[in-house]
């Protein structure tokens, strides 16, 4: 199985950016943790981060036929990017939305996800472990799709 982990705007600043909310771990160190987990699960994993909506959309399109599942932290695009939502809807690759912080416990503009309706589900609030939970969830999801 091939899993793509996608991170949107400002997530390249993890570790430096509001550590009280997002934690002290860098994106690179989260990716290392996921790489080790993927090895244990015997799945292949790739990573992509962009601060640009169009680049994220291009990467989703390029995943067609190349990727079995997407873990997506779209950052603030979560709350208003109909274009990213439509890209996921177009490729129909199973996706899990994830967030480090609990978006439902924060400012009201973060309570809405326009992406959630085209995903399997949402994981939010477990810090860096949201990524780990999302990878496990995708692994189990793809496993049940196989039988
Ligand atoms: C975030 C939550 C978003 O509201 C915010 O804009 C981010 C990060 C999270 O991982 O908690 O950039 O997606």
Automatic annotation (TrEMBL):
InterPro entries referenced in this protein's UniProt entry, alphabetically: DHquinase_II (IPR001874), DHquinase_II_CS (IPR018509), DHquinase_II_sf (IPR036441)
Site (Transition state stabilizer): 17
Catalysed reaction, written as an equation: 3-dehydroquinate = 3-dehydroshikimate + H2O
SUPFAM superfamilies from the UniProt entry: Type II 3-dehydroquinate dehydratase
UniProt keyword rRNA-binding, yes or no: no
Gene3D superfamilies: Dehydroquinase, class II
Active site: 22, 99
Signal peptide annotation: none
Keyword list, A-Z: Amino-acid biosynthesis, Aromatic amino acid biosynthesis, Lyase
UniProt pathway: Metabolic intermediate biosynthesis; chorismate biosynthesis; chorismate from D-erythrose 4-phosphate and phosphoenolpyruvate: step 3/7
Residues holding substrate: 73, 79, 86, 100-101, 110
GO molecular function: 3-dehydroquinate dehydratase activity
Class of enzymatic activity (EC top level): lyase
EC number(s) recorded for this UniProt protein: 4.2.1.10
HAMAP family: AroQ (MF_00169)
Function according to Swiss-Prot or TrEMBL: Catalyzes a trans-dehydration via an enolate intermediate.
Subunit structure: Homododecamer.
Family: Belongs to the type-II 3-dehydroquinase family.
Classification via NCBIfam families: aroQ, PRK05395.1-2, PRK05395.1-3, PRK05395.1-4
Protein name as it appears in the record: 3-dehydroquinate dehydratase
Species of origin: Paenibacillus provencensis
Originating gene: aroQ
């Amino acid at each position: 199985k091939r899993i793509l982990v996608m991170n949107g705007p400002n997530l390249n600043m993890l570790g430096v950016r509001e550590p009280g909310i997002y934690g002290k771990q860098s994106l690179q160190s989260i990716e290392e943790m996921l790489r080790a987990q993927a090895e244990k699960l015997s799945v292949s994993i790739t990573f992509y981060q962009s601060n640009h909506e169009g680049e994220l959309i291009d990467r989703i399109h390029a995943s067609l036929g190349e990727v079995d599942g997407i873990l997506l932290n779209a950052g603030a695009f979560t709350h208003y990017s109909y274009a990213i939502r439509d890209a996921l809807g177009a490729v129909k690759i199973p996706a899990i939305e994830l967030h480090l912080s609990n978006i439902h416990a924060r400012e009201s503009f973060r309570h809405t996800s326009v992406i959630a309706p085209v995903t399997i589900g949402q994981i939010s609030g477990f810090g860096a472990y949201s990524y780990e939970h999302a990878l496990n969830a995708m692994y189990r999801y793809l496993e049940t799709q196989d039988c």
